[in-house]
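Backbone-to-sequence.
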């Protein structure tokens, strides 16, 4: 799975007026009130809400089967942080396996904070 493929997938899934930032492992931070430096705004959110902490809401997730893309979106305890899991990343596609895999990708992104794309749709 390339970053270009994941970018195209998020563009397809998200409302075109939204600004968002994509991290290296597929985690997307949607910026509902984009202001200033979008990268820093997204990093701040993912630094706080990305890392998994067992036994806390940070470990919670929901798996969403996507109708418009091959794969799943995995939610987190923050409503604007989602992680994309492509259908070719896993052998099994049950909700628990997909959710745990997506959660681990979010955890990795929450620690590494490596941005690969910024979609800035603020009005000029």
């Amino acid at each position: 799975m390339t970053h270009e493929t994941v970018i195209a997938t998020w563009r397809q899934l998200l409302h075109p007026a939204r600004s968002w930032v994509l991290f290296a492992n597929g985690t997307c931070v949607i910026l509902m009130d984009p202001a200033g430096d979008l990268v820093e705004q997204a990093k701040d959110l993912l630094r706080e809400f990305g890392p998994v902490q067992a036994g806390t809401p940070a470990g919670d997730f929901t798996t969403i089967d996507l109708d418009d893309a091959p794969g799943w979106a995995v939610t987190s305890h923050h409503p604007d942080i989602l992680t994309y899991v492509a259908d070719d990343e896993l052998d099994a596609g049950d909700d628990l396996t997909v959710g745990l895999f997506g959660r681990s990708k979010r955890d990795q992104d929450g620690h590494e904070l490596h941005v690969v794309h910024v979609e800035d749709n603020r009005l000029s």
